[in-house]
Design goal:
Layout: H1 3-29, H2 41-48, H3 52-61, H4 64-68, E1 73-78, H5 80-84, H6 90-94, H7 100-108, E2 111-113, H8 118-127, E3 131-135, E4 141-147, E5 150-154, E6 160-170, E7 173-178
Helix pairs in contact: 2-3, 3-7
Length: about 180
């Protein structure tokens, strides 16, 4: 082989090798694994570390499957601190099997059918003169209004609860974290 032919062979081999290296990553991109699915409402509550009481109550009421279904739902999720504000013994009494009906009513009083974001709530409040009524899955109503830039929800007994974290998106709806527990009238 002449030096010219040897140089040509080396260049050709180098181009072939380089072309192969460039093509490999492009092929690898087609085989990436899918991103993990967005958790549902129950999975989200279980992962926060501040909704342990809510999760225990949802389990005791038998609502895990419902709140894991496609929905969509909007859930106003009281924190453990919010549940701790209830009179002593309230939660322990509610999670007893004989109180499942009452517990279910209280928990579904925290849920609204459909996906209602904070922007939706604010629009509803503003379009209704500063106060909007929200019908819950339990069939009762909550009242939403603004206090400065914070959404405040008032239950049937007149207890006001602030939304402390809004718009936690889930695969089957949205969660708004609250600093209080809603109790029907």
């Amino acid at each position: 082989m002449t030096p010219k032919n040897t140089l040509t062979a080396i260049i050709a081999a180098a181009l072939a090798t380089t072309t192969g290296l460039v093509a490999a990553p492009a092929l690898a991109d087609h085989h990436k694994t899918a991103a993990p699915a967005t958790p549902n409402i129950v999975q989200t509550a279980m992962s926060t570390g501040v909704h342990n009481t809510l999760v225990a109550a949802v389990k005791a009421a038998g609502l895990v499957d419902t709140l894991s279904s496609p929905g969509p739902f909007t859930v106003f999720a009281p924190t453990d601190t919010a549940f701790a504000k209830l009179p002593e013994g309230t939660v322990a009494t509610l999670v007893k099997p004989e109180n499942k009906g009452t517990l279910t009513t209280i928990l579904t009083y925290h849920a609204v059918a459909g996906k209602v974001t904070s922007a939706d709530l604010i629009k509803l409040i503003n379009s209704h003169g500063g106060e909007a009524t929200i019908k819950t899955v339990a069939g009762s109503e909550l009242t939403a209004r603004l206090s400065g830039d914070m959404i405040v929800i008032t239950d049937a007994a007149g207890r006001a609860t602030a939304v402390t974290t809004a718009d936690v998106m889930t695969s089957n709806g949205v969660v708004h974290v609250t600093d209080g527990v809603f109790l029907p009238g």
